[in-house]
């Protein structure tokens, strides 16, 4: 018994000492992006600078973790895959502005917070996957999704998922809440099935003939096309034509969300953190984002993957994403009111 | 005294959430009550009722069959029926959906056989539905009922059953009139645990697109950015849990259930003729097949395809999982003993109630409980750091929340319900005459516990530890939030890949969680069986 207690104590101490010290040569990340996706990037950073990158990856609760730690907060940066999470940390007053030449040059103004409290690393277009047989000009605007001619032909994941919340919030930002509600009711009436699964599951549903249109992020096309472990996904991708919305002259442009980052005001490794941010916006890392995860780099002139290029280019919505994020709560309430997921 | 401290400690996250919820959110609530709240509540209730019925049915019936009868494979089924306990519900949900949805094996075969072309040609039940969620949750939760029902049958049923038969009752009458009422307290304990897990469940219901109260909590917290609103909804779950516990109390207080004096005789198992025996075998194999063999088969197939993955990472994570689970199991057992024994010693209903209340954290979703632990532990950390800086000029940093200590504490607080319920049930079966005898012979309460109760409770102590061990192996939401930097367990490894829709890449980790669960399962069952076969 005593022995067991002693062993446990040794293990706890070992765990405690495994916590990174605030020594030079480290930077600590709280990440909403999966570790396995982050690793090639952080490995490249460590190889180039010798700075070690420590990561905690979680889905929720990181804001509360930073608040609870107070001045002793060990994290330097927060990385997210959606603007909403960034705004959540910003609203809690935990970010500080980053003054960096690189950032202001590389990241366009609408993809960062007006005071540089957060900024995008990549953009992620939320497009329409259409079955190859759907006529090319059958759908041109996001508003068309509410057109009754699509009755029983559209698939999507839960309206409460951050990607859809972002999309609905952008429509509220553009057209106001009332028009957005009408649109969402129209879309709801057109759904082929109760919202379910993830974006890839919608591609599968198109392949299986359950629906003709699906709302999904574009980068999944790359993930399916190159999937050698589950080759059936290559077939799903082959059935799909990507439709970019609102591309006409003067149109609002295709809705995008971002993956982004912000510097915590309690950061202990500030210099290393900024170095990492600049690295992530550099050519190497931006190229990795584009080739490994098929997202759109924010830096211009980065060669993207040839298959993604074959899906065509698009004009993106240039609304400031902070404005979109402000309407997130309203979007979530709208989803409830319309009974979108029910 | 000790028990009071443990109870207070275990109440910390609850108190934190209560404090967080002390903000009026009139606007939010008027939105929720307008419609969606009732959807959440309705779904939670239907889910609970469905899981309660199905777990009781599967758990009790299989427990009685393997205790009462001899049929093919019975010795395997005795412990095999516990196996689904080791399967995380999110993994089972994934695997079952994978097989049963449109592109899955079952529907593909049906289409091939009958020549159907598309989904419009035939009807097939929707897997991502309330029914699907009820079935998946019941498959992983029925072992709680089975475990406790079988222990009750083995420990107590034999003599009563024989008497009832001698008095001319039929087999069925004896079961329903004598054995089942006698085993009711044990069954209700198992059921309460299953219900608490159902209430806090998030991964599976989200996967099946069934918006329950937990889905509402996360929506209010993350999409509507109202932590206080989320805490208020979580408090509602606490109320539901308290109602459940009161029902359990009520059901148990209807009579006193001390064991008949002396060692019970073993139940004489009746050998069934082959035909009926095989039906029993098939019936008992069904939940094991769906709840364990199917996921193991699918994951095993995946892991063979991806053996090229990084094994050093896997071994590191496996070590983290095993050692954390062992620590959590040990500490939770200690806390459970302290709490249960304190309740026994103190006749005050206050003690009983604070102990009961200390266990309702089990009904709160893990990520929310983690927040309830983060705030007080963060305060403590910063306080200690301040002291250390002032006195020793040494920055201590985050002693608890920055290290694995927070994880062990959090697991213990989450799973205290498992160990307290198990140990409390076991203690109530020891007649108080034992305590009186020991005390009158001059032993103090500590010595009585050590010399009398603990030896008598040994199987239950082991059961309590093993339940916590298995549950910690599977635990995900708390681990994600509270873990230190660069720290992974098997469960987080599985999740990292599964959330990228690449479960096959971490199938080895997933299957390890499942197979590790076999060890405690065999232990637990052998303990019960030993009682049965050792006989009097």
One letter per element, helices H and strands E, the order of chain A comes to HEHEHEHEHEEHHHEHHEEHHEHHH
Mean pLDDT, all residues of chain B? 85
Largest sheet report of chain B: 2 strands, parallel
Low-confidence stretches of chain B: none
**Oligomeric organization of the protein chains:** heterodimer
Question: What is the global morphology of chain A?
Answer: globular
Give a verbal description of the structure:
The complex is a heterodimer of chains A (342) and B (536). With 342 residues, chain A is α/β, with parallel strands linked by helices. Chain A folds into two domains: 25-123 and 256-305, D-Maltodextrin-Binding Protein, domain 2; 126-254 and 316-338, D-Maltodextrin-Binding Protein, domain 2 (3-Layer(aba) Sandwich), CATH 3.40.190. In chain A, 43% of the residues lie in helices and 15% in strands. In chain A, strands 1, 2, 3, 4, 5, 6, 7, 8, 9 and 10 form a ten-stranded mixed beta sheet that branches. By secondary structure, chain B is mainly alpha-helical. Chain B has a domain at 326-487: Orthogonal Bundle (MetI-like fold), CATH 1.10.3720. Chain B has 22 helices and two strands. The two termini of chain B are 39 Å apart. Chains A and B meet through helix 1, helix 2, strand 2, helix 3 and helix 4 of A and helix 2, helix 10, helix 13, helix 15 and helix 19 of B.
């Amino acid at each position: 018994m005593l022995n067991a207690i002693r062993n446990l104590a040794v293990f706890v101490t070992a765990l405690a000492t495994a916590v990174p010290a605030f020594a030079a040569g480290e930077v600590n990340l709280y990440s909403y992006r999966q570790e396995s996706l982050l690793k090639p990037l952080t490995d490249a950073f460590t190889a180039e600078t010798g700075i070690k990158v420590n990561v905690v990856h979680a889905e929720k609760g990181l804001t509360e973790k930073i608040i609870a730690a107070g001045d002793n907060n060990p994290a330097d940066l927060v990385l997210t895959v959606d603007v909403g999470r960034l705004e959540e940390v910003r609203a809690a007053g935990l970010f500080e502005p980053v003054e960096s030449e690189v950032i202001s040059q590389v990241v366009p103004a609408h993809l960062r917070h007006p005071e540089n409290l957060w900024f995008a690393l990549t953009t992620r277009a939320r497009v329409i996957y259409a079955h190859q047989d759907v006529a090319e000009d059958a759908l041109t605007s996001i508003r068309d999704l509410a057109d009754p001619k699509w009755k029983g032909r559209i698939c999507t994941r839960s309206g409460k998922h951050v990607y859809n919340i972002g999309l609905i919030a952008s429509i509220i930002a553009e057209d106001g809440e009332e028009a957005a509600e009408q649109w969402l009711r129209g879309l709801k009436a057109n759904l082929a099935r109760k919202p379910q699964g993830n974006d890839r599951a919608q591609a599968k549903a198109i392949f299986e003939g359950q629906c003709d249109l699906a709302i999904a992020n574009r980068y999944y096309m790359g993930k399916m096309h190159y999937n050698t472990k589950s080759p059936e996904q290559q077939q799903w991708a082959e059935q799909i034509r990507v439709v970019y919305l609102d591309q006409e002259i003067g149109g609002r442009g295709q809705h995008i969300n971002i993956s982004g980052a912000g510097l915590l005001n309690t950061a202990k490794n500030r210099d290393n953190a900024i170095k990492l941010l600049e690295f992530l916006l550099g050519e190497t890392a931006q190229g990795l984002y584009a080739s490994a995860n098929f997202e759109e780099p924010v830096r211009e002139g980065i060669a993207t993957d040839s298959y993604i290029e074959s899906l065509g280019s698009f004009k993106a919505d240039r609304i400031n994403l902070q404005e979109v994020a402000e309407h997130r709560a309203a979007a979530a309430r709208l989803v409830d009111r319309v009974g979108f997921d029910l | 005294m000790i028990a009071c401290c443990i109870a207070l400690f275990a109440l910390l996250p609850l108190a934190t959430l209560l404090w967080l919820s002390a903000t009026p959110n009139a606007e939010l609530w008027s939105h929720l009550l307008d419609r969606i709240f009732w959807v959440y509540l309705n779904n939670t209730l239907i889910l609970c009722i469905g899981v309660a019925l199905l777990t009781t049915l599967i758990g009790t019936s299989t427990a009685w069959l393997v205790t009462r009868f001899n049929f093919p494979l019975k010795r395997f089924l005795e412990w095999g029926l516990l196996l689904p306990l080791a399967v995380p519900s999110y993994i089972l949900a994934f695997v079952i959906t994978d097989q049963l949805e449109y592109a899955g094996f079952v529907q593909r075969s049906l289409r091939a056989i009958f020549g159907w072309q598309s989904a419009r040609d035939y009807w097939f039940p929707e897997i991502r539905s309330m029914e699907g969620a009820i079935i998946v949750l019941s498959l992983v939760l029925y072992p709680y009922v089975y475990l406790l029902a079988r222990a009750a049958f083995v420990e107590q049923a034999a003599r009563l059953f024989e008497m009832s038969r001698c008095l001319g009752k039929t087999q069925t009458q004896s079961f329903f009139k004598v054995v089942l009422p006698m085993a009711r307290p044990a069954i209700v304990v198992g059921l309460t645990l299953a219900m608490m897990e159902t209430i806090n469940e998030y991964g599976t219901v989200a996967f099946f697109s069934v918006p329950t109260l937990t889905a509402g909590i996360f929506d209010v917290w993350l999409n509507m950015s109202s932590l206080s609103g989320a805490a208020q909804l979580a408090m509602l779950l606490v109320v539901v849990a308290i109602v459940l516990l009161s029902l359990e109390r009520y059901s148990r207080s209807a009579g006193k259930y001390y064991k008949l004096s002396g060692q019970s005789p073993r139940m004489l198992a009746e050998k069934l003729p082959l035909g009926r025996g095989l039906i029993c075998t098939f019936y008992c194999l069904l939940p094991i097949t769906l709840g364990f063999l199917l996921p193991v088969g699918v994951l095993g197939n995946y892991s063979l395809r991806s053996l090229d993955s990084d094994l050093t990472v896997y071994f590191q994570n496996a070590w983290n999982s095993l050692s954390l689970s062992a620590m959590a199991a040990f500490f939770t057992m200690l806390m459970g003993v302290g709490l249960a024994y304190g309740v026994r010693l103190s006749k005050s209903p206050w003690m009983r109630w604070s102990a009961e209340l200390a266990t309702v954290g089990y009904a709160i979703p893990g990520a929310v409980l983690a927040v309830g632990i983060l705030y007080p532990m963060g305060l403590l950390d910063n306080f200690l750091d301040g002291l250390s800086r002032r006195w020793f000029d040494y920055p201590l940093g985050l002693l608890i929340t920055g290290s694995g200590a927070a994880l062990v504490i959090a697991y213990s607080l989450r799973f205290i319900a498992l160990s307290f319920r198990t140990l409390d049930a076991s203690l109530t079966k020891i007649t108080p005459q034992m305590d009186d005898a020991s005390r009158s012979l001059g032993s103090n309460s500590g010595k009585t516990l050590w010399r009398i109760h603990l030896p008598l409770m040994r199987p239950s102590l082991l059961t309590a530890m093993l339940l916590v061990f298995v549950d910690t192996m599977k635990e995900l939401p708390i681990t994600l939030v509270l873990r230190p930097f660069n720290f992974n367990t098997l469960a987080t490894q599985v999740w990292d890949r599964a959330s990228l829709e690449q479960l096959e890449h971490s199938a080895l980790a997933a299957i390890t969680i499942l197979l590790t669960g076999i060890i405690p399962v065999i232990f637990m069952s052998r303990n019960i069986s030993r009682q049965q076969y050792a006989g009097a």
